[in-house]
Amino acid sequence: MADFPADIYTEPEPSTDTLAHLGPLSNMAGIWTGTRGLDVNPKADGPEKQAFIEHMQMQPIDAQTNGPQLFYGLRYHTQIFKPDDPETFHDQVGYWLWEPATGTIIQTLTIPRGQTAMAVGKTTADAKSFTLEAVRGSLTNGISSNPFLEYAFRTERYTITVTKHDDGTWSYEQETLLVTPDRKEPFPHTDRNTLRKVGECTLNPTALAKHKGTSS
What we know:
Layout: E1 30-43, E2 46-66, E3 69-81, E4 88-99, E5 104-111, E6 115-122, E7 129-135, E8 143-145, H1 147-152, E9 154-164, E10 170-179, E11 187-199, H2 205-215
Antiparallel strand pairs: 1-2, 1-11, 2-3, 3-4, 4-5, 5-6, 6-8, 7-9, 9-10, 10-11
């Protein structure tokens, strides 16, 4: 059991400036695009490689508390398309969260195929690269799937590594380990892309209110 405080109710006074307290997520707020993504997924006749284009929004949220626990974070929405095809290939929403007190970083994700997960890792505030993991069956960094996915494409583990680059871009490499009925060994479904900034974020509500108050 983690060393939690006896007082589980008293909340800290968070900063209104989320952008200044994102730790390893710093400089990831904004609107991003990536044009050289690669997806490797399982098909009946073997692995399929699929190039993709990605559009992602990462917007700061007001600080979140669970009693004494304090998170700063980003709400994200990513949409992925095949080149020259307007149909959404992949859609995903969730949060990136940073807990300064413990060095914990969290990604929550939900996709509209009936699946949700929470990946967790440990890192430092100035980290340029960090890795998170979700594991099927865990109560704290788990994966939940609809009955068909649990039968046909069971996700055993999900890992993602994010790397921030000196030119202002950032990239990710992720692996989703899938168990399918027709294969003896799990299949490593992989995705990777590099994203460049194309637009600025909107300030979180309390920061925006404070900014308007000082400029009036």
